[in-house]
Design a protein that fits this description.
Blueprint lengths: L1 H21 L1 H15 L2 H17 L3 H15 L11 H14 L3 H14 L6 H10 L5
């Protein structure tokens, strides 16, 4: 009896997980559409940043990279000393995505650029560690 209950719980978890990952692109599109419809520009920016993270978490690395590039194209203003909130995080996520796609040369350059552009960034310690790891590629 206990085994049967555990098996049912396991099946529910597996099916839920597959839906969560399999339907992640549809969920992401709904989040974006809702944010555009219901929020101001700041809310839309936050939703787009969340979408990058969500695609990364669900293993959709190519889609996450696409979202990160779009986000940075829209919000990154490297000529400004003070960046919009979230740009440093999106830049770091892009480097992390590139790293997870097994492109170490490109990732090393992005982590180094992160360190140069965002010396007070939230992820500066992790970026410095990655730069040290990938020193041979720089």
């Amino acid at each position: 009896m206990v085994f049967k209950q555990l098996l049912i719980i396991f099946i529910i978890i597996v099916v839920g997980g597959l839906y969560f990952i399999g339907g992640s692109e549809a969920v992401s599109e709904k989040i974006e559409a809702y944010a555009v419809e219901k929020h101001d520009e700041e809310g839309v920016q936050k939703a787009r940043l969340f979408n990058i993270k969500y695609m990364y978490w669900t293993g959709k690395r190519d889609r996450a990279l696409e979202y990160a590039n779009d986000y940075l194209k829209k919000y990154d203003e490297p000529w400004k000393r003070q960046q919009r909130p979230g740009v440093d995080e999106a830049f770091f996520l892009k480097a992390k995505i590139i790293d997870s796609l097994m492109r170490p040369r490109e990732a090393a350059k992005l982590f180094q650029e992160y360190c140069e552009r965002f010396p007070e960034g939230k992820k500066i310690d992790e970026a410095k560690q990655k730069v040290a790891e990938y020193k041979m590629y720089l």
